[in-house]
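Quick one, probably user error.
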């Protein structure tokens, strides 16, 4: 390789690395800015109660997909750790719904804040392929009102999507009595 070609290749590589770094920095800046704007809308999340009654819907293992500002299924909430996907266990109690997330703080949704529990094709930029005969059964979406008055959708996909139906009937399927303890999550790491 001759010297002018080598110099041109090195200059091109440096420019390319600088452009990639700039794009990554702008993306991170946009993520932080979005978080600052959403902090005012979201405020503080409800705290997890010290005690709860027996589960009305048994613990459901699956994947927490994130939260979105209602009614926009693609407007991901990035405040705190709400924007990260992780393994989770979803349990319904008479007092509310607990989302225990692996590697993140649990989310408590008080019963009086729940607006609707439904299934959707996708949430937070994540679309799940439909099951035959059930086109909207990819994601369990829980719409709830925050103390600030803002409505938010929390997305969850059960490991076995047939378990979504237990959540849609309002928790009529009672859990076994030994399920009163909150199940612990397994970490991948």
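Nope, works fine. Designed sequence:
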């Amino acid at each position: 390789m001759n010297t002018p070609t080598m110099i041109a290749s090195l200059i091109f590589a440096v420019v390319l690395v600088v452009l990639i770094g700039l794009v990554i920095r702008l993306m991170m800046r946009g993520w932080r800015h979005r978080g600052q704007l959403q902090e005012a809308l979201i405020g503080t999340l409800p705290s997890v109660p010290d005690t709860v009654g027996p589960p009305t819907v048994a613990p459901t293992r699956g994947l927490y997909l994130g939260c979105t500002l209602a009614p926009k299924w693609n407007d991901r909430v990035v405040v705190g750790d709400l924007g990260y996907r992780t393994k989770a266990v979803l349990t319904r109690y008479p007092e509310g719904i607990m989302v225990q997330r692996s590697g993140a703080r649990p989310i408590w949704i008080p019963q009086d804040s729940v607006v609707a529990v439904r299934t959707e094709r996708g949430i937070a930029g994540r679309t799940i392929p439909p099951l035959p005969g059930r086109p909207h059964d990819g994601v369990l979406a829980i719409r709830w009102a925050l103390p600030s008055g803002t409505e938010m959708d929390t997305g969850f996909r059960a490991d076995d999507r047939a378990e979504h139906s237990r959540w849609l009937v309002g928790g009529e399927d009672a859990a076994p009595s030994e399920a009163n303890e909150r199940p612990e999550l397994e970490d991948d790491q």
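The beta strands are 57-69, 86-93, 96-101, 107-110, 114-120, 122-123, 126-127, 139-145, 151-158.
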